[in-house]
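Q: Fold this one first, please.
A: Sequence and structure below.
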Amino acid sequence: NTWKADAPTLFDNLAVALVATPSIVPLTPLYLVVDTDGLTRVIANRPPNAQVALTSDPAVFLEYFTARLVR
């Protein structure tokens, strides 16, 4: 237990939801690179190498997520 709590923090709930239900949020195709400083940057005018969730509807996601928790 390295998180010092009774239950782990779930950091990537939206990412997991996207695997199960890709339509949960709109995805934008972008070309991304990770710089040597660890920052992710968009490079314009390159063919996309990633699908990126730039926006989400918190109410829609919360309904989706909690419905699966109580099953």
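Q: Good. Now the second chain.
A: Here it is, same layout.
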Amino acid sequence: DQFIHTKKLIDEAMKETGAKTKSELIKNVLQAELDRIKRKRLLTMKGKINLDIDLDELRDRDATAHQPGTF
């Protein structure tokens, strides 16, 4: 029966995740799935984005003006 299978699935998921309510379980599972999708999308961009960034240059700072230990 589909209902019994679904109930067993929910019970197992709650046990494994530690969720205390079905609402908490659903929220956590949805968030985990969205995170997985976003990571997968980011991985498809690997090597396509140049991340060689000089923050001092971006912030229009003189990189030689900063001495270690000073702010």
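Q: Anything worth noting on the second one?
A: The mean pLDDT is 87.
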